[in-house]
Design a protein that fits this description.
23% strand, 247 residues
């Protein structure tokens, strides 16, 4: 059986591992960074933790005789994607990036597009006092710095696990998508949200907040995806499986 290493952490990675396991054609190993304390259940073997950069990933590929590498990480996880491309090239094994399409601005959207979470914190207008942070629990330092200058701003932080730092004048909402439009609309209204911080992760699981913001006229500070390396890319699980079978 051919051995596949899936760099995971997304719902797409979970579904891909499950579908590949059903075929009984591949030995599937899913790798998680370990940032989520309660990840979604995975089919097949699972390893948790970093590799130690591109060199560490290369060593893992070689020591475990991996035949294929599929990167199904979060579209905004730029470093591991770069490391995967470098390691696969050095190991001379086929490499695929499963990248779901990003969200596109449509009529009625009010987006402020920025390159990083730090830039998002700086882009919050001084007139905005209630902010909904959906960009992750591990990048709150820029908002902590901002709170020292604008202590009047209140933050609602939604994440799967509790944040690593305490952000003053905030509330943490522990939850995991998918979310419905009705849920998101009600949340934004109940908390009187004036602006949303979001990464352009794409997909349907959290798109309802984009729709609700559009309906309510709430601006979104949208963190754009980092540049991705050259290489074979597909946008669906079906296309990823077809790529494997072609090889």
């Amino acid at each position: 059986m051919k051995k596949i290493l899936i760099l995971g952490g997304t719902g797409d990675a979970v579904k891909l591992a499950a579908k590949l396991a059903i075929t009984n054609e591949f030995e599937v190993i899913s790798s998680l960074a370990g940032r989520t304390k309660q990840p979604s259940p995975l089919v097949g073997q699972v390893r948790i933790g970093g590799f130690g950069g591109a060199d560490g990933l290369l060593n893992y590929l070689q020591e475990n005789a991996i035949d294929f590498l599929i990167d199904a990480t979060h579209p905004c996880a730029g470093q591991i994607t770069m490391n995967g491309a470098i390691a696969a090239k050095a190991a001379k094994i086929p490499h695929l990036m499963l990248v779901r399409p990003q969200w596109e601005r449509v009529s009625g959207d009010n987006w402020i597009e920025v390159e990083s979470v730090a830039a998002a914190a700086q882009a919050i207008p001084e007139s905005i006092n209630r902010v909904f942070i959906t960009s992750g629990r591990q990048q709150l330092e820029p908002f902590l710095l901002r709170s020292q200058i604008h202590p009047q701003t209140w933050y609602l932080i939604r994440s799967i696990d509790p944040p690593d730092i305490d952000l003053p004048n905030s509330e943490v909402l522990l939850d995991r998508g998918p979310f419905s439009l009705e849920q998101e609309r009600q949340l934004l209204q109940n908390y009187q949200i004036q602006s949303i911080i979001s990464k352009n992760s794409g997909g349907a699981a959290t798109y309802a907040k984009i729709m609700a913001a559009r309906e309510l006229g709430i601006p979104i500070i949208m963190v754009q995806r980092p540049a991705s390396p050259e290489g074979k890319k597909v946008t669906s699980i079906e296309d990823a499986i077809a790529w494997l079978k072609q090889l």
